[in-house]
Amino acid sequence: MFFHITLERNMQLHPRHFGPHLRDKLVAKLMKDVEGTCSGRHGFVVAITGVEDIGKGLIREGTGFVTFPVKYQAVVFRPFKGEILEAVVTMVNKMGFFAEAGPVQIFVSNHLIPDDMEFQSGDMPNYTTSDGSVKIQKDSEVRLKIIGTRVDATEIFCIGTIKDDFLGVINDPGATA
Amino acid sequence: MSTEVRDEDENAAELKIGEEFLKSKCLMNCEIARILDHKYDQLQQMSDDATNQISQVFEKSMQYVKRCSRYKNPDAVRQVREVLSRYKLAEFELCVLGNLCPETVEEAIAIVPSIKSKGRKLEDDAIEKMLHDLSLIKKFE
Asked: Keyword Thylakoid, does the record have it (chain B) (predicted)?
């Protein structure tokens, strides 16, 4: 789920930037440092939308660098265990399939795909029901439930399931609708 | 860090998403699409070489919200939030419903189990009315 939250960060700035454009420099550096990063606690920082407050700077002894506490607002994407969302399938193999929901990757193991869906290999590997009415392949949109998250230093990885009521394929790119 | 939810306790189905996120504004995909579009235009105006500044996370999020948005029209997006906010939902619940647009009461309860948890007074009739209002917005978009 996407959130708009307020975050804080201590920014270190080199003395050469001190001058009338100090604030601009600080904001530009903040965007460069933070956007696109990921932490286990707040998830992926998608975009900074505003800077709320820049506190008083503190000179660091010995280096001349100044640390500013910066309060800013950002759009973040944070997946939660138990959350149900839509995702786009990126890869299918006999172990299961991978899907993406924005910046996060979700793996759905074949144990968590309904039993009536069988793996079909070929140049477009897919999972299909025996009557062929439902098919999961690359680029399908699926609704899935996140059942586990693993947090890395720079990434969040999720495990999902489609073996529950109201989960599964939403549209099928191969079908002529 | 008392507000931090450990992975084991976290469960969106029971609305256990941590105090910090519960207090924050939660946004639907269609709302995010508008914010990111605006930001994208800003970035392009700021420099000619905008591609350098756009992170992969930004790009992927933008593609995703464009693909998985139910409402495209900004007025419809506003109406969805307005309609849903009449039902005393948590921000998180509101956004899941807005993103997934369930069609039946059972489906709504399946994707947002917390609306039926104890202490809440949302009856099936109310949920049905809410879904009906949502489908009307979609129809007249």
From this structure: no
Task: Judge: B96–A83 Cβ closer than 8 Å, yes or no.
Answer: yes
Best mutation target among A38, A41, A80 (most B Cβ atoms within 10 Å) is: A80
For residue A111, report the phi and psi dihedrals to the nearest 5 degrees.
Answer: -70, -20
Instruction: Give the domains, in start order, of chain B with CATH numbers.
Output: 29-67 (no CATH), 74-139 (1.20.1250.40)
Asked whether the predicted pLDDT for residue A142 surpasses 90, the reply is yes
The shortest C-alpha distance from A62 to chain B (Å) reads 31
B133 three-state secondary structure: helix
Average of per-residue pLDDT across A62-82: 95
CATH class of A2-77: alpha beta
pLDDT for B50 beyond 60: no
CATH architecture of A84-171: Beta Barrel (2.40)
- Same fold for the pair A2-77 and A84-171: no
**Burial degree of A38 (CB within 10 A; 0-12, 13-18, 19+):** buried
> What number is the ipTM of this complex?
0.88
